[in-house]
């Protein structure tokens, strides 16, 4: 395919994409295929000779679409939102064409595209200011902190845990010079909420350290007393607490750990506090939600996913650290070709992102942020958040008005946790009917041992009419379910 | 921006991308900016209100392009190639529009788009067959292995090391029940070549295990005797060898560790052998290069980057494991919402990629493979590899014909290591002149203590005329350098 054909096919693809998104709600949101369905639809080997573009593009509808869950359908209410917007897609096209791999790999420190790393640093400053992060997290203030784009919150959590691990090992060895690294590793304890995302526990597994789950209160949030009690017991048993991952907006119910009270304890005890606000973080650009981030000043690192709720297509997870040297220090290795004499100084933050993440190479993801920030403006982004929170309130009201149902957790952002009053089995049956109908898509969670349905406002194009329609659908299925003799 | 405006702007962007790539060789390949250049070109905060699209797109040339190293210029000869092709870009546009996040997160096992995971499994089978991988790596054979797309080779190496670590800990604890996990961790030793990529050592740092560098022979390859000697000394000292990362196509000189002799040793000694063929792996689709992969049958895992040399835009790193259970086992944690009863069986490989990688979410990257394989065909891809190897031979001949220069390592693939006969300083000065001229871009390496210039055939559009022009440029700068009084 040459440039001329790309011009033609590219424009056709733009129309295909626009058609898909304009008409997405006509498709059933949830696929109806059997595991392994795809293998039988295509050959077992790659073709020897090129096929025609027409044949390939025809197969998108034949092979791919039947197995797609349409995340951007206004009837998709599962998990949390996955961001999508036209400006971000345009930026991604440009990113693909530039195809520069952002890293600094050699003594020629600028080699791998300075624009890529520099725009990222400045965009994380823009975003940090939108969130009113304390100055210590903003690179442009010539402070000691700054931001970086990770692929996912999982990677941000892992990086923070590794940085904390390294710092703790050094601190312990400084006063106990006869401890080996593995002696210390065997004593380190990390903590997170029992409500935290599985990727937090996973980070501890990767890092080879023990992680304990802190019980949450009855609003599903971690409070300081419980963490303090666990830490004291562990210290008495000879263990070394070193890391706490707080969650702002938990996956099951969007609960907020009380970082205002947890932060001072962590600071006193030399515990690295990381804040995972993967979903809810986007909302902190609105002044009315910003108080939920109070206490971030105690954190060593903070992360949220613009690719969830800030109209920036996956993947783009924004992470800030208070001290760049902490995270760079997690990778003690310094081969010549990764070394730059000024790498820990303010100016050369532009060269060091290689040390801030697991992969060495990185795409030019900050272009998406730049396009979205400028083409929506802060007010446009705030309007998007507010609209989705308001839609969640609409759904909450509908549920509350129906005495057969109950709300299971406070509705603070775009997530409503609800259930039929009755057994877990009853609610499992309701969800099964919803899933089988394929018209809307929800996923469940467990709260206090109860099977709960999660209704998350996800698609950018979801309107009140879709919420009303979803609720009619749910109540119709409920009616049918309750008619059955077994109930 | 609505769909109608996206149709218009998207088509403009397609033309911008085609214009950029058609005219890329008119741009100086290397940027001329000072560190921090970008911050002063744009505001310090995001705009409150939306800006016009015209303003944003104008800034691409004003702000971004001056700081770009043009990786796809036919005058870019640095690092290794970063793949780029029009079919891959079209597939990425589709990927962005679908915006599905491939993972299985709940009891509804199909939820996150079955097409995403299933196409990936089948494409890795197609690719594995192109490479003539042993059947045990192919998922569709109902064997115990299969493939997964990682973001980068760094992540593949890390995953393999974590899997090996977990297996080793279990094995040691099975016979030494009084060993704690950290006791074992403190004794584990991993090995890799002194020529291996820094990401291998980094994987060991993350995993908290010791890694030792094995000296290479005078062709920069690791031989079995040296590894065996080191392992025996370590075992005698009470350590536990558990992992060896072989490189096929090292970063400095594209050397090939002798896996045919290393593999049997690793198998005998219960050492996990991972093969990192990040760059060279693509060439194994050509029968004449496939012998370099002989010995892969001894490996537990194998990885290479289609995003380097197989015309698939970054990121797309292909990884295969011989036993799925090994890599899944590295994450012992099994919360209900990630569990599926058949997850280790052949059929449900489609649900388990979440356990094969660091992030939970994943883009629909297999679309790029599907488009590229079908629109080039195996023969088209082979032709691309062969052409680039032939171009390297052209450059090698030019160097060999000039008695002032020497070739520093055997030219097997698309990389030529060369230098001026003389001091390291002389060669550093030559490279500085090349870099400062910005007309072509190379990076150096160290081989046997000597400063060496690497000339890698990178861009898809590089032709013999560009090689000739690059050589004229190098010899002109050499002439000027040697004229200077100091020489």
UniProtKB/TrEMBL annotation, chains A, B:
Pfam name, any one: Pyridoxal_deC
Domain of life: Eukaryota
A GO term, aspect molecular function: aromatic-L-amino-acid decarboxylase activity
Keyword Lyase set for record: yes
Key words of the record: Catecholamine biosynthesis, Decarboxylase, Lyase, Pyridoxal phosphate
EC number: 4.1.1.28
Residue positions, PTM N6-(pyridoxal phosphate)lysine: 308
Listed cofactors: pyridoxal 5'-phosphate
SUPFAM superfamilies, alphabetized: PLP-dependent transferases
A GO BP annotation: carboxylic acid metabolic process
InterPro entries reported for this sequence: Aromatic_deC, PyrdxlP-dep_de-COase, PyrdxlP-dep_Trfase, PyrdxlP-dep_Trfase_major, PyrdxlP-dep_Trfase_small, Pyridoxal-P_BS
One cellular component term from this protein's GO annotations in UniProt: cytoplasm
Keyword Methyltransferase: no
PANTHER family (alphabetical): AROMATIC-L-AMINO-ACID DECARBOXYLASE (PTHR11999:SF167), GROUP II PYRIDOXAL-5-PHOSPHATE DECARBOXYLASE (PTHR11999)
Similarity section: Belongs to the group II decarboxylase family.
Description of how the protein assembles with itself and partners: Homodimer.
Protein name (Swiss-Prot/TrEMBL): Aromatic-L-amino-acid decarboxylase
Organism the protein comes from: Amphiprion ocellaris
Upper lineage: Eukaryota, Metazoa, Chordata, Craniata, Vertebrata
Gene: DDC
């Amino acid at each position: 395919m040459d440039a001329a054909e790309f011009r033609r096919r590219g424009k056709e693809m733009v129309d295909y994409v626009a058609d898909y998104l304009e008409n997405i709600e006509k498709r059933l949101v949830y696929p109806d295929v059997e595991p392994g369905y795809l293998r039988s639809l295509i050959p077992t080997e790659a073709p020897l000779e090129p096929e025609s573009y027409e044949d390939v593009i025809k197969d998108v509808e034949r092979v791919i679409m039947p197995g797609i869950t349409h995340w951007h359908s206004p009837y998709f209410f599962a998990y949390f939102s996955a961001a999508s917007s036209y400006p971000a897609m345009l930026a991604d096209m440009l990113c693909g064409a530039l195809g520069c791999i952002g890293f600094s790999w050699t003594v020629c420190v600028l080699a791998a595209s300075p624009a890529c790393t520099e725009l990222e640093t400045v965009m994380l400053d823009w975003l940090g200011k939108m969130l009113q992060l304390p100055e210590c997290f903003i690179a442009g203030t010539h402070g000691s902190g700054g931001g970086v784009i990770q692929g996912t919150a999982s990677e941000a959590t892992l990086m923070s845990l590794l940085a904390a691990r390294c710092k703790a090992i050094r601190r312990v060895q400084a006063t106990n010079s006869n401890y080996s690294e593995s002696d210390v590793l065997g004593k380190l304890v990390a903590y997170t909420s029992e409500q935290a995302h599985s990727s937090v526990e996973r980070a501890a597994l990767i890092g080879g350290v023990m992680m304990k789950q802190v019980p949450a209160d009855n609003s599903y949030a971690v409070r300081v007393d419980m963490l303090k009690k666990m830490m004291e017991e562990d210290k008495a048993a000879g263990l070394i607490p070193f890391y706490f991952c707080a969650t702002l907006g938990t996956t099951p119910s969007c609960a907020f750990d009380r970082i205002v009270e947890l932060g001072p304890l962590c600071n006193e005890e030399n515990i690295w506090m990381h804040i995972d606000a993967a979903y809810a973080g986007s909302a902190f650009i609105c002044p009315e939600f910003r108080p939920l981030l109070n206490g971030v000043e105690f954190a060593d690192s903070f992360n949220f996913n613009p690719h969830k709720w800030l109209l920036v297509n996956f993947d783009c997870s924004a992470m800030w650290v208070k001290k760049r040297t902490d995270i760079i220090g997690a990778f003690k290795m310094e081969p010549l070709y990764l070394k730059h004499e000024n790498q820990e100084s303010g100016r050369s933050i532009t060269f060091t992102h290689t040390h801030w993440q697991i992969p060495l190479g990185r795409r030019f993801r900050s272009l998406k942020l730049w396009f979205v920030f400028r083409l929506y403006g802060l007010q446009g982004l705030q309007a998007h958040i507010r609209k989705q929170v308001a839609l969640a309130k609409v759904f909450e009201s509908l549920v509350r008005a129906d005495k057969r149902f109950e709300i299971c957790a406070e509705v603070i952002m775009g997530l409503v946790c609800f259930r039929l009053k009755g057994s877990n089995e009853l609610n499992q049956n309701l969800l099964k009917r919803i899933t089988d109908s394929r018209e809307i898509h929800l996923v469940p969670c467990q709260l206090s041992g109860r099977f709960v349905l999660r209704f998350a406002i996800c698609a950018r194009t979801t309107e009140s009419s879709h919420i009303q329609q979803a609720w009619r659908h749910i109540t119709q299925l409920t009616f049918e379910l309750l008619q059955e003799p077994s109930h």
